[in-house]
Amino acid sequence: MERVPNVTRADAVAAVRNPLAFIAERWTPTPRTVRRAALAALVMSVVIVVTGGAVRLTGSGLGCPTWPKCTADSLTATSAMGVHGAIEFGNRMLTYVLCAAVGWAIIAARSEKPYRRGLTRLGWAQFWVVMSNAVLGGIVVLVGLNPYTVAAHFVATSALIAIATVMWQRTREADTAPRPLVGRSVQQLVWCLVAASVLLILVGTVVTGAGPHAGDSSEVERMPLDWETVSKVHAVLAWIVVSLTFALWFVLKAVDAPEGPLHRTRELFVVLLAQGVIGYVQYFTDLPEVLVGLHMLGSALVWIAVVRVVLALRERPGTGPDPTGPAAEATLASRV
pLDDT of 257-292, one tens digit each? Predict the structure, then answer.
């Protein structure tokens, strides 16, 4: 067992002034550790979507009627508040778990050798989105679950998922300039797919804002739109995304594109089909809470798959964290 070095006064001062630099000087994570840290942040960003949906679908949105405290007199939920208070407060506590996961990703990226500024910035971008969304979540509670603020809360989480996905992908790549793997016309088709996917998510928040699941058992304001009409628009957009995905796969096959873009496009197509089945079943069964929750999870997975399709259109040649196995990681570690 190695002897733990003594911490001097100078070390303590340095740790207080710049804790990230202090840790980076004394710890070099393996490429696998950095990847796992980035993946943990991504997984938690999806988990927070699912648990936030559980809060809404169980009518616990105002289980803690104020913010940042749970009640005017208590920071935590009390037994008198029942299960709704426990669910809402539990979801708030998961925000700290998400912060811890993002913090681990930042520390791991900052400590990697050689230092990768772009990767660290992606970690910090997640941190600031989480902080902003936490405040927005408090506003959602203070305004009584106003549907427009709820929609903004979900959109901000989607932005977090996108950044986390990019960071996870970047942990597998070198820092050289990206080189396109497909032509401009294919790239334009993919950006049409991205635009349609963003619109699909936005209209999905409108479906939620106009639909029957208000998030609380009391009377909650809803968007003044016909829910079924908006749902049909949402379904049309979903078919557009599916059609664009199939067209992309067909074009990639026609131009003999590399396996990476083809594989990611197939993944997106499978996730879309599963999401579509859930969407239609929940529509024709009067929106059971379990299926709505699965649909929210599917929305996050669809968005991750879309972002991964975009990232698969280019490569960064050069020495980078090769995810093919432990031997490659050991080689990389010896080089740095």
Answer: 899 999 999 999 999 999 999 999 998 998 898 999
Cis peptide before 180 (omega within 30 of 0): no
Amino acid at 254: A
For the beta carbon of residue 280, count every other beta carbon within 10 angstroms: 12
Length of the chain, please?
336
pLDDT digits (tens, 9 = 90+) for 108-160: 999 999 999 999 999 999 999 999 999 999 999 999 999 999 999 999 999 99
The label of the residue with tokens 């960003």 reads: 45
CB 82 within 8 A of CB 217: no
